[in-house]
Amino acid sequence: MIALYAPLQWPHGLKTMPEVDQEIGGTKPAEFEADRRELLQLFEKFTRQPRNFAWKPHPMFLEMSEKNWMRWGYLHMDHH
Questions:
Q1: Is pLDDT above 90 for 33?
Q2: Local structure of residue 13 (DSSP, 8 states)
């Protein structure tokens, strides 16, 4: 959890986990505009209140509170 709250920026260029890497087991890129629309839809779903889905364990951090998921989402979007 220190990665979520340490006052450091996440470094660029680090390899991601194979199950989410778009070149290995993650979602392959398709058409840019369609991918952008899907990202916006997922962002809206992620931040919707009340939430209409249950959180699944994060691949690295495992079970997380809603507060930690929101922090992770912010840091992930800021990182990219």
A1: yes
A2: T
Residues 6 or more apart from 69 whose CB is under 8 A from it?
Answer: 46, 55, 58
Per the CB < 8 A criterion, the answer to whether 70 and 28 are in contact is no
DSSP 15-73: PPPTTT-TTTTSPPP--HHHHHHHHHHHHHHHH-SS-SSPPPPBTTTBS--HHHHHHHH
Q: Kindly state the DSSP code that residue 8 receives in the 8-state scheme.
A: S
pLDDT at site 63: 95
pTM: 0.71
